[in-house]
């Protein structure tokens, strides 16, 4: 073995002496026994995850306490030892809760930092905590506990947002507006109907989160590093302590699986996509060109140069941040695609992506909820807009259909009427019965009733249509479903 550095020479000398004292060489490293040289500083900096995984500490300690009790039940720890370890872990938790935890530069991740501190506080007994466990199953557990909390919290935020949207729908039940396709005025709708469209999207989001939670709610501890544990641990007992209904069935899978992270990132991406579409509409609607809504001053910012500006920064940032969450989803899928079983250090890269996506989505949800709560709707501008743009043309065509004209022919006749109305610079509603009859003798007096915005809206009278009574019925259902 050719060692050229002096540190190496020293290390090989000590290695050839009688059995070493057992002191780990890379100072402060729990795994130091096998090593003859210090870890390079650059490597320490490159491999550490402490800066971000420290937020897993409550879950890590909760998991460690359950692990102690499981070891006690397995006869690996005495009752006294287990109680002492649990007390020590609770002290460590208090230090972390109060920002009094003394982190050290050599702490590699939160798991190692907690164990190191535990041993400082309670002595060598701390060294028994990790019996029958690996950081691989430990981090898998921490992540699932974290995800379970996050998913439940985001589900609550989604429901609150839905409540606010339903409230706005109720408050604006009589407000009409243009409905659009291709950003062209298409048919008039109730603004409440438009708001409720987002409530439906968010219901699917809520369901997706609930589905993710069911699948991720499985307990991985006891899988060891990859193969299982040498100790007779009752994994179902650990699961019951941590409120998991079941345990993972394959140790290799358990330590290398990050499906739940991908699923949650997928669910968050869809939430952000929905928020982003709403944001895009609010940005347009708040513009001088539309003037459909006013965003609250408290949710806008000004320009450093142009004194008149009131900019919709919040919805713009929500729209912008959506890309970030999508990026994390793609990053995570890419991280996983080439990984052989089982644990690989690549997996440590899951956390920053997940944490950032979670924080971004939670913030965006809360901000969008508040924005919508305070939104001011310009009813008259909307009503005027709903009258224009030839949006009643479909009503005319459908009228002809009721008179026995095949729809295609009715469509063509109505197209000619629309062109006429454009040339005349008079909206369809202002054409006389005589003029209409010039295009088709089938037009009767009652056609004029069809040519009103309210009439057009209220004829869309099926489940899912924009008729007032349908929209109101849906609001009632939702109010009942969302009651606390
Ligand atoms: N910090 C690592 C992670 O987040 C856990 C450490 C596992 N390390 C190891 N050498 N097996 O994935």
UniProtKB/TrEMBL annotation:
Compositional bias ranges of the Low complexity kind: 1-24
Cellular localisation: Cytoplasm
EC number annotated for this UniProt entry: 4.3.2.1
PROSITE patterns: FUMARATE_LYASES
Record flagged with keyword Cytoplasm: yes
One example GO MF annotation: argininosuccinate lyase activity
Domain Fumarate lyase N-terminal: 33-327
UniProt region (Disordered), positions on chain: 1-30
Domain of life: Bacteria
Residue spans crossing the bilayer: none
Functional pathway: Amino-acid biosynthesis; L-arginine biosynthesis; L-arginine from L-ornithine and carbamoyl phosphate: step 3/3
Record-linked InterPro entries: Arg_succ_lyase_C (IPR029419), Argininosuccinate_lyase (IPR009049), Fumarase/histidase_N (IPR024083), Fumarate_lyase_CS (IPR020557), Fumarate_lyase_fam (IPR000362), Fumarate_lyase_N (IPR022761), L-Aspartase-like (IPR008948)
Swiss-Prot/TrEMBL catalytic activity: 2-(N(omega)-L-arginino)succinate = fumarate + L-arginine
Ranges for domain Argininosuccinate lyase C-terminal: 391-458
Keyword Glycoprotein included in the entry's annotation: no
Keywords: Amino-acid biosynthesis, Arginine biosynthesis, Cytoplasm, Lyase
HAMAP family: Arg_succ_lyase
Family: Belongs to the lyase 1 family. Argininosuccinate lyase subfamily.
Protein name as it appears in the record: Argininosuccinate lyase
Organism, scientific name: Nitrospira defluvii
Gene: argH
